[in-house]
Amino acid sequence: MDDLEIYRDTLIYLFLLMVVFLATVVPALLAMRRMRARGRRMRTAGGRMGYEPWSGKESFLMVELERLGVIESSGAGAVFHPLHRQEARRRAWLFDLLAGQSGWRRYVLRDRAAGSTRTVALVQSEILDSPYLMVEPENPPSKALGRLADRIEHMHGLESVELPIGARAVPGIRIRTRSGHEAEALRVVMESGMLDVLRREKDLAIRAHGQIMAVVRPLSPTDTREVGALLNTAETLVSGLEAAAPRKESSGSEDRSP
Asked: Which residue ranges does UniProt annotate as crossing the membrane (predicted)?
């Protein structure tokens, strides 16, 4: 009888030990496995999409945005808007790189918090060597984003480009260029058909500063498909601008040809 009791107690202890193991150790192992798989996916995505290391031009552009107060940190993977420092624990701005075509690199800062998606997209042209910045000013309380365009224009010394008489302007569009380049910027704008494209694409926002011109328009996509369509439209638009703008590279190659 004593042996049976000992055997029964041993089975009970083993059963309880198995229950504790299944209730504690197994979930921990599964969670660790998920974390490792997530880390591998993030590292793979980072290596494939170029989170690190930053190239010189992209790093310079991110430093400018950080200095202007648009983002708090230009580190890889996650940045926080200064207006949401107190909510940083639950409101992360994830930096997604969307692979572009024909030398395009397109970046989207997306707020994954509950509610509507807010987007800040950076589009860089390697042909004109000018960064194209797409900004959603957001709601009136976010004054930092609302004043971003003016601060960038002032920093780069951009001047207004006046449209000729008879040209129909697009509401919400501001065209700026470097001092002394007004005539060339106006020619590029008119020959590329940019105003017609902007007039058709109500959600299009493109900000180009550098050698030729600068344009600002509010942007408010709330769906990833809208962001993709927006970037495709921006790529089409800027391709027209690049076709209308003179290229130093092509002119140099023509001079060297016999």
From this structure: 12-32
Let me know whether 140 and 229 are in one domain: yes
Kindly state whether residue 151 falls inside one of the protein's structural domains: yes
- pLDDT of the chain, 258 residues: tens digit per residue: 577 777 788 888 888 888 888 888 888 888 777 766 765 554 454 443 333 333 444 455 455 555 544 444 444 333 333 333 333 333 333 333 333 333 334 444 444 443 433 444 444 444 434 444 443 333 333 444 445 555 556 655 667 778 888 888 766 566 767 677 777 777 777 777 777 766 666 544 444 433 444 454 444 444 445 545 555 665 666 566 666 655 544 444 444 333
Determine the structural domain holding residue 6 and report its residue range.
Answer: 1-48
Helix, strand, coil percent content, the chain, rounded in steps of 5 = 50, 15, 35
Between CA 61 and CA 87 the distance in angstroms is 25
